[in-house]
Amino acid sequence: MPAVSQPKIDAIIEDLYAGTLDASAWDRAIGAMVDLLGCTGAILFAVNPTTQTILRDEVHRLDPQGVQLYRQHWITQDIRIGPGLRRPVGEPHHIQEVVPQNVWRRSAILNEFLIPSDVPFFLATWLHKSPQKIVTLAFQASSHHGSFDDADSKTVKRLVPHLRRALEIRNRLESHQIRASTLTVALEQSHFGVIVLDEGGRILESTGLADELLRVEPTMRRQSDHTLWLREPAGSRLRQWVLTGTPPENVTDGVLRIPRNHGLQSLSIVVTPMPPVPYAWLGNEPRWLLFVFDPDRHISPVAAIVSRDLEISPREAEIAVMLSMGQSLSTIASRLGITMNTARAHLKHVFAKTQLRSQSDLVRRVLASPAIHHAGRSTSTT
User: How confident is the model over 345-374, as pLDDT tens digits?
Assistant: First the structure.
């Protein structure tokens, strides 16, 4: 093949590193390598060398159905893998270097799969080898292209160090992203809100539940300068805490409580410092982690458990749960928008269905139900 110009090599290297953050740049880099070799396409894949199971793959310009067929059947029949594993990492190799030609010409994988698919020639490079995983980039060529040669190997070898390094960076970033995404999903599904503040009390991040509270809760909000506002005296206590790094004297348990109107239970905010991290070049540094608990938001899910456990109606379960949270029957009636007579009737039905005789018996029964595991994570004393 003709000599490859340095500008083409440089462009591929640039896209490989850009591809650590940009999937289109990564695809462009592998595609440019395919063009450089004048072949059909490439596949980047990770395999368990013991089970010969493909753990992950990326297909570039190859027929996806053919790759799927290889994945399902032919990988276990591939006579190239065993001899190829003896090749060192970073050294491109083609068929003439791993399997005797007379053996290869009679092989089932060549005659029954590769030739009918018109990709009988390959040039592969191990990018990683361990007992649990091997990673390779394999270029496939048609009968018209012909076999790869040493010049092709030298061309690929110029790019292999950059390919390996870019792939390592990409894998690390993806690993961190997966962990961050998993943590985010867990936090979003939790029964509390999370808010991250910088050293000046400005909101840097907040989960969905926290965002909802900031929008609808009159006792807290995100101000125009992104600082967190809390109803007094919690607001001044938080400011003192954030600016001095020391909890106020009247906050001995690390929890700020914000009383609310209309019979709602107090919001509880657990404030904890985050370890300092040198993020100066990225902007504001995350400094404080706030966990926001709203007990009243968990009446419905907890009531659903109580309803099933005690075999009472959803509305009856709501009343039972609210009683167990220390609310009076008159407050419950007001919050549910029903009359006291209706509330008493619901309670009477609960006693009849459960064979309990008093509100205290009912509260003890609710607290002994599976619901306590949910309520315990979200309720607090006011």
Answer: 999 999 999 999 888 888 888 877 775 555
Burial zone of 87 (CB within 10 Å; 0-12 exposed, 13-18 middle, 19+ buried): middle
Contact, 154 vs 129, CB < 8 A?
Answer: no
| Sequential DSSP letters for 334-367 | HHHT--HHHHHHHHHHHHHHHT--SHHHHHHHHH
**How many of the other CB atoms lie within 10 Å of CB of 178?**
10
State the pTM of this model.
0.59
How many C-beta neighbours within 10 Å does residue 216 have?
9
The amino acid at residue 33 is: M
Domains of the chain, residue spans: 6-180, 191-293, 298-378
What 3-state class would DSSP assign to 265? coil
> Angle formed by the axes of helices 299-310 and 314-324, to 10°?
110
Which one, of 213, 215, 214, 206, lies nearest residue 188 by Cα?
A: 206
Gap between the Cα atoms of 298 and 183, Å rounded: 21
43: left (phi over 0), alpha (psi -120 to 50) or beta: beta
For residue 357, the cross-strand partners are none
Q: Is 373 in a helix, a strand, or coil?
A: helix
Task: Report the alpha-carbon distance of residue 179 to residue 326 in Å, rounded.
Answer: 39
- What CATH fold (topology level) applies to the domain 298-378? Arc Repressor Mutant, subunit A (1.10.10)
**Mapping DSSP to helix (H, G, I), strand (E, B) and coil, where does residue 273 land?**
strand
Instruction: Collapse the DSSP code of 42 into the 3-class scheme (helix H, G, I; strand E, B; otherwise coil) and give the result.
Output: strand
Backbone phi, psi, residue 315, to 5°: -65, -40
- CATH topology classification for 6-180: Beta-Lactamase (3.30.450)
Structure tokens at 206: 């907040």
Most confident of 24-33, 84-93, 198-207: 24-33
Q: Do 44 and 60 contact (CB within 8 A), yes or no?
A: yes
Query: What is the rounded CA–CA span in Å between residue 203 and residue 323?
Result: 36
Number of helical H runs and strand E runs in the chain? 15, 12
